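#lab-general

N.A. 3:47 PM
ok so I finally got the sequence cleaned up, no stray characters, all 229 residues accounted for. can someone with queue access submit it? mine expired

B.Y. 3:52 PM
send it over

N.A. 3:53 PM
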Amino acid sequence: MSILGFTSRSAGFLLGVVLIAQSHLCEAKTIAEGLVIVPENKLPQQAQQQGLAMDLHLVNPATLYLYIEQDNGRQIAIFDVSDPGRIKFKKLSEINAPAAFDFVQPAGQSLEMIRYRDGRGTAIIDLTKPKEPVLKAVGAATNSYYIVPVEENKANTQSPSVPQDYEVIEPLASHAIAIVKGVVQQQTDEGNGTTYLLGTQGLTVIRNISAERKLAATAPHWTNTIDDK
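B.Y. 4:20 PM
back already:
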């Protein structure tokens, strides 16, 4: 084969690759350098349904699932979003929740707390089997308490600068056991379970004594600073 013939065939092959790549990129819209918008009609069909709430869950170090609540809480659409360029629909799971809900916060390993939008309270979604979420009562959770925004202020949860009240909930309690008002930021030490709430009146610290004792039994004694006497 001549060099000219090889070059012509190579050029044709590369042109074909470029055209395929361009046709693939046409499915999305580039709005700025390095930024692409993929509209719903270019995603799997199940992503084109109205969603009410969603939650990301790390299945394992290499797999990330996105759960989207649909049909007023009756079902959850599950997508594998590990690769944003190749989002895959995994399953439409029926959970038959009694009302629409919002995802609130993790409630333990593979557990997510939800709050019903009609005011009937909270519940747990068990994601132990990632493609088979199970709706459970809060009492089935593993944590001893939860610290969540008060329902009336839940619309502000995405605006950290807007003060909102937080409530402390025990799994089997019928009402909040404590309320911290005017919180602008929350931080939790996952090691000892301590939660810090920064509010308009200053700092509130909520300690998890059982978690502290468990940590103390397995970790070295802590000192606040190296110059403590």
